[in-house]
Amino acid sequence: MQRTLVMIRHAKSSWANPLQSDFDRPLNERGKREAPEMAEKLKQAGIAPDLIICSTAKRTRQTAKKIAEVLGYDYANIRWEEKLYHCISSVFEEMLYEVGDKVKTVFIIAHNPGITEFVNQLAPGFVIDNMPTCAVACARFEAEEWNRFPVVDRNVFLFEYPDKKHGNQ
Predict the structure, then answer these.
(1) For the chain, what are the domain ranges?
(2) Pick from 41, 46, 40, 54: which is nearest to 7 by CA?
(3) Rounded distance between C-alpha atoms, residue 84 and residue 60, angstroms
(4) Which residues contact 152 (CB under 8 A, 6 or more apart)?
(5) What is the pLDDT along the chain (169 residues), one digit of tens a residue?
(6) Residues in Cβ contact with 89 at an 8 Å cutoff, skipping those fewer than 6 apart
(7) pTM to 2 decimals?
(8) What is the third-level CATH fold of 2-14+24-166?
(9) Distances in whole angstroms, Cα of residue 136 to Cα of each of 6, 61, 105
């Protein structure tokens, strides 16, 4: 069965309140605009989630909501995972072990630096310096179960982010 993993870094967050905790930082205006734009790119590419797994930080929750709205995914069905907040890359793989085998496409919305490290392990020859805010990296692979993820050949078939056309990361 073909499976698709979509890794998404949260959209641009606000630093307007320097006393606000990192966990509680909301999206800024640019982030609020770019999250639905990136969701629209996924929609145009025919990529829709069967499951969205998301960090519980405010900016990731807001990013998930905007993406879910564009893709017609029920916000109530998002799986919230506190351990995705600033996690190490191995946590992403652990998340996949918990995904039901009927799920074909999973979106994971999280943070740097772990998401960049994990995305760099998706496929041989795919290397990036940084997963920009609101970036999307999509990988496909053949497997009957999600827990086969570490041992199957994977192909990164889409890497998009706002301002990609300008080369800004």
Answers:
(1) 2-14+24-166
(2) 54
(3) 10
(4) 141, 142, 143
(5) 999 999 999 999 999 898 899 999 999 999 999 999 999 999 999 999 999 999 999 999 999 999 999 999 999 999 999 999 999 999 999 999 999 999 999 999 999 999 999 999 999 999 999 999 999 999 999 999 999 999 999 999 999 999 875 454 4
(6) 114, 115, 117, 118, 121
(7) 0.95
(8) Rossmann fold (3.40.50)
(9) 7, 16, 14
